[in-house]
Amino acid sequence: MIIPTVPPACYLVLGAILFTIGVIGVLTRRNAIVVFMCIELMLNAVNVSFITLSRFLNSPHGVMFVFFVMAVAAAEAAVGLAIFVQLYRTRETINVDEINLMKW
Amino acid sequence: MAENVVILFQWLVFLGIGLVCIFASIMVVSKKNPVHCALWMVLTFLATAGLYVMLHSQFIAIVQVIVYAGAIMMLILFVVMLLDLEVELRSRLKFLYSKAIGGLFAVLLMLGIFYAVTTRVLKGNVGSFTPEKMSAVGNVKAVGKVLFTEYLFPFEVASILLVVGIVGAVIMSKRREARKE
User: Is there a contact between B34 and A58 if contact means CB atoms under 8 Å apart?
Assistant: First the structure.
């Protein structure tokens, strides 16, 4: 008897679970930095799906997409965290319920 | 028999990594202190890197450890420690009906993805990059060849994006002395 190898559906289901945990975090947490981390979690879950499909379709394109997603995430982290620091300087809070204006 | 042992080991590693991933990301969502959240996040990223190794893309696994677990999480930790979040820590995590409704919709989304993933079979053109061929030339070499030929233009655009990100971060975090006086 030969055990079947781990099917792609398992990896995709794991990606779906991680994505959902990220969505729940974005919807329930009010600290802007934690919301930001949950967005990174969602990007990570999408990366898992990309790599899985790339592996099981024997194609390098999924790997390229993950590479660019990482580049975008790095740029996003730099700008987003600068915005949080500036917000904290002017408003002394990063609770997203209390921040509802871009300019005041 | 030997193949069975290898495949069983693969299943065990997959289940272990999957459980670590899910547990760590639940901790990210539920811990109150942002520093704890960030540290659990690092664990999630490291476990995901293990998943990438299992899927035969070593290059992405290394980049994941260096860029995500190294650079981005360090940046987030720096900012968390820079801001004084004591007041936010003392306020409790409140339960709101809006949060429960949001969580419900998120679970519905998860069920939708489960349905889409488990009922459809993978379709699409199967490429020529089998794991055996990738490991024969080396994963980084194979990825680099595609990146610098087929994806050269997106690569250059990504470099512009990173420059814009750096300049934006510098301008954003600069103190506005002139406006205050």
Answer: no
